[in-house]
């Protein structure tokens, strides 16, 4: 669900993939629903949990607002996963200036931007990057996220990249 201005709505979701040695990596991320920048992400061989989601929330706020909190709440759109719906996560979100919002139950298309990002990451990056083990995969994933932000063109952005829209600097609200 796109918006007309950065820092109005962010979306978050997760995905997983296997490394060549059988390790499974689970990735949680946050995107701005206007400029499409991947604001922050975390990867783990554990499950999706509220602590990881909170780390991503805080990283996204710091990316866009530095040491400050947003002057008005940023909508935080997610699916209905337990890590997102937990009381601790929702309370933390409000504490750092986010306004938790969830998609309708059994309606993942409501978070279509996040779903599209997952497809892009898997198709354009993960499918071709070396991933012999978790450590190597995380290092290459960091490069993939950076490339996505710096160079990946989006039709909705006039075939420009997220950082081309926001000038390579955090978009302060």
Structural account:
- It is built from six helices and five strands.
- It is of the alpha/beta class.
- It has a five-stranded mixed beta sheet, sandwiched between helices.
- Helix 1 runs parallel beside helix 3.
- The two termini are 19 Å apart.
- The C terminus is likely disordered.
Task: Draw up the topology in text.
Elements: E1 9-18, E2 24-32, E3 38-44, H1 50-65, E4 74-78, H2 82-85, H3 87-95, E5 98-102, H4 112-126, H5 134-151, H6 162-166
Parallel strand pairs: 1-4, 4-5
Antiparallel strand pairs: 1-2, 2-3
Looking across the biggest beta sheet, what order are the strands in? 3-2-1-4-5
Q: For this structure, what is the CATH homologous superfamily?
A: Ribonuclease H-like superfamily/Ribonuclease H
- Report the count of strand segments: 5
What is the helix tally? 6
CATH class assignment: Alpha Beta
Shape: globular
CATH architecture name:
2-Layer Sandwich
Mean pLDDT: 88
State the distance separating the first and last CA atoms: 19 Å
Q: In angstroms, what is the radius of gyration?
A: 15 Å
From the 3D structure, determine the CATH topology: Nucleotidyltransferase, domain 5
Largest sheet geometry: 5 strands, mixed
Low-confidence runs of at least 5 consecutive residues: 167-173
Helix-strand pattern, N to C?
EEEHEHHEHHH
Structural class: alpha/beta
């Amino acid at each position: 669900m796109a918006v007309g201005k950065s820092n109005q709505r962010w979306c978050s979701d997760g995905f997983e993939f296997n490394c060549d040695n059988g390790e499974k990596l689970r990735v949680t991320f946050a995107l701005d629903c206007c400029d499409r920048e991947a604001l922050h992400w975390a990867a783990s061989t554990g499950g999706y949990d509220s602590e990881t989601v909170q780390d991503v929330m805080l990283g996204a706020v710091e990316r866009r607002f530095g040491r400050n909190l947003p002057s008005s709440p940023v909508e935080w759109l997610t699916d209905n996963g337990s890590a997102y719906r937990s009381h601790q996560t929702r309370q933390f979100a409000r504490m750092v200036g986010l306004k938790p919002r969830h998609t309708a139950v059994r309606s993942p298309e409501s978070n279509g931007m996040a779903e599209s990002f997952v497809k892009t990451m898997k198709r354009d990056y993960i499918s071709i990057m070396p991933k012999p083990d978790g450590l190597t995969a995380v290092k290459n994933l960091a490069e993939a996220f950076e490339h996505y932000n710096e160079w990946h063109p989006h039709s909705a952005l006039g075939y420009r990249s997220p950082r081309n829209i926001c000038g390579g600097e955090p978009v302060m609200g």
